[in-house]
C-alpha cells in the first residue's frame, strides 16, 4: 500500500490531539478507506473538523465507554462523546461477536459523533458471513416533505449481505439527493454542485455549494425519502436515547456542545432460516444480471460492486489531496 506515510501522519495528528495510538489508528484507517473507495467527502477533508472539535472539548479523546447488557443479543453503548469512528468500531465488533454467538444482535450507541461511511462498518459484518443493517442520524440538512426548513439529517441507511464472491452487496445511501459531505468538499475546492439537489435560503434551486449549505437539501423521491429520513431519525435517535428531531449539532458550524449522534447496528446470521444462503443469493444476483440491458449499459451492477472495484483499483495508488486540504493537513 502506497499511503503508509499518509496513514502514519494522520495517526500522529490524532495522537497529538489526545487519542490513544489504537484509537488514532481506527480513525486513520476509516478516513483512508473513504479516500480509496472514492468517497472523498468522508475522507481527509474532515480531519480538520474532528481536530477542532477535540480542541474545543466537544469530542472526548479519552472516552470512558460504557456497555449496558440488556440481553445476550442486545447491548446499549454510551460512547461518552467519543469520536464516532471509535464508538462505531466498538459497536460493530460487539454486534458481530454477539450475532455469531446467538444468531442475531442489536447494538445501540448514544453520545457518539460522526462516524464516516456506514458501509465501512457493515462490510466488517459481511466479511464474517453475516447480514447487517446500520442506521445513524445527522445534523439538520433535509427539509421534511411539505416544510421549508431543514430538520432531518441526510440520515444514511445501510444494508450489507455476503454474495459468495469477493464483492459484497452493500447498499449505503443517504436520504438526500446528494450527501452533505460532497457539498462541503465542493465549497472547499470552489466547484459547483448539480442542479435541483438543493435550495438556497430563499427556496430557489442553486448550484452554489455555499448557498446550498445555507439552505436545504432535497430528499430522494419526495415524500418517500422524507419518510425514510424520519424512520432513520427514530431508529438511531429516539430509540437509542440520542439527539433527534433536528437537535444533532452540525460538526462544522455548531460548537455549542457535543453532537450526541445515535447509531444502531442490527446483525444476524445468514442461515437463520435456510442453510444455503450463499447459493440462493448467487442465483438471485445472476437472474438480475441476465436481464436485457438498456442502451449504453454494458453490465447491471449490484450495490457495492462498483465500490469494490474502485477499492481494488485505488488501494495501491497514491491518494491525491487538493491543495487547500493539504494545507490544513500540514497545519494540523
Gist?
By secondary structure, the protein is α+β, with helices and mostly antiparallel strands. The protein contains eleven helices and nine strands.
In percent, how much strand structure appears in the residues?
5-15%
Total strands: 9
**Could you name the ranges where pLDDT drops below 50 across 5 or more consecutive residues?**
none
**Helical residue percent?**
25-40%
Q: Can you walk through the features of this model?
A:
With 332 residues, this protein is an alpha+beta fold. It has 11 helices and 9 strands. The two termini are 24 Å apart. The model has no long low-confidence stretch (mean pLDDT 94).
Topology:
Layout: H1 4-16, H2 21-36, H3 47-55, E1 66-69, E2 74-78, H4 84-102, E3 104-112, H5 118-126, E4 130-136, E5 157-161, E6 169-173, H6 180-189, E7 198-199, H7 209-214, E8 216-217, H8 223-238, E9 261-269, H9 277-289, H10 305-314, H11 323-331
Parallel strand pairs: 2-3
Antiparallel strand pairs: 1-2, 3-9, 4-5, 4-9, 5-6, 7-8
Helix pairs in contact: 1-2, 4-5
Annotation keywords:
two-stranded antiparallel ribbon, seven-stranded mixed beta sheet, 14% strand, 332 residues, 11 helices, single chain, globular, alpha+beta, 39% helix
Amino acid at each position: 500500500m502506497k499511503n503508509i506515510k499518509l496513514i502514519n501522519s494522520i495517526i500522529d495528528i490524532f495522537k497529538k490531539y489526545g487519542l490513544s495510538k489504537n484509537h488514532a489508528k481506527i480513525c486513520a484507517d476509516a478516513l483512508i478507506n473513504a479516500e480509496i473507495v472514492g468517497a472523498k467527502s468522508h475522507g481527509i477533508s474532515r480531519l480538520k473538523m474532528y481536530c477542532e472539535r477535540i480542541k474545543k472539548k466537544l469530542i472526548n479523546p479519552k472516552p470512558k465507554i460504557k456497555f449496558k447488557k440488556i440481553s445476550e443479543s442486545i447491548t446499549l453503548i454510551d460512547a461518552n462523546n467519543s469520536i464516532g469512528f471509535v464508538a462505531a468500531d466498538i459497536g460493530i465488533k460487539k454486534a458481530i461477536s454477539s450475532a455469531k454467538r446467538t444468531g442475531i444482535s442489536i447494538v445501540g450507541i448514544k453520545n457518539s459523533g460522526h462516524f464516516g461511511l456506514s458501509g465501512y462498518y457493515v462490510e466488517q459484518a459481511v466479511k464474517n458471513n453475516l447480514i447487517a443493517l446500520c442506521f445513524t442520524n445527522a445534523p439538520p440538512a433535509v427539509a421534511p416533505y411539505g416544510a421549508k426548513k431543514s430538520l432531518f439529517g441526510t440520515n444514511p441507511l445501510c444494508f450489507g449481505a455476503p454474495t459468495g464472491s469477493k464483492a459484497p452487496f452493500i447498499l449505503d445511501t443517504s436520504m438526500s439527493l446528494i450527501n452533505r459531505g460532497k457539498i462541503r468538499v465542493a465549497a472547499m475546492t470552489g466547484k459547483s454542485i448539480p442542479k435541483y439537489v438543493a435550495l438556497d435560503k430563499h427556496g430557489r434551486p442553486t448550484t452554489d455549494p455555499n448557498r446550498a449549505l445555507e439552505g436545504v437539501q432535497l430528499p430522494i423521491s419526495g415524500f418517500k425519502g422524507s419518510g425514510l429520513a424520519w424512520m432513520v431519525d427514530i431508529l438511531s435517535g429516539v430509540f437509542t436515547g440520542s439527539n433527534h428531531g433536528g437537535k444533532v449539532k452540525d460538526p462544522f458550524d455548531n460548537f455549542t456542545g457535543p453532537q450526541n449522534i445515535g447509531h444502531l447496528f442490527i446483525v444476524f446470521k445468514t442461515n437463520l432460516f435456510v442453510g444455503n444462503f450463499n447459493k440462493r443469493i448467487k442465483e438471485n444476483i445472476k437472474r438480475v444480471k441476465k436481464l436485457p440491458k438498456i442502451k449504453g449499459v454494458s453490465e447491471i451492477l449490484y450495490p457495492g460492486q462498483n465500490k469494490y472495484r474502485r477499492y481494488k483499483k485505488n488501494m495501491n495508488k497514491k491518494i491525491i489531496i487538493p491543495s487547500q486540504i493539504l494545507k490544513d493537513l500540514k497545519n494540523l
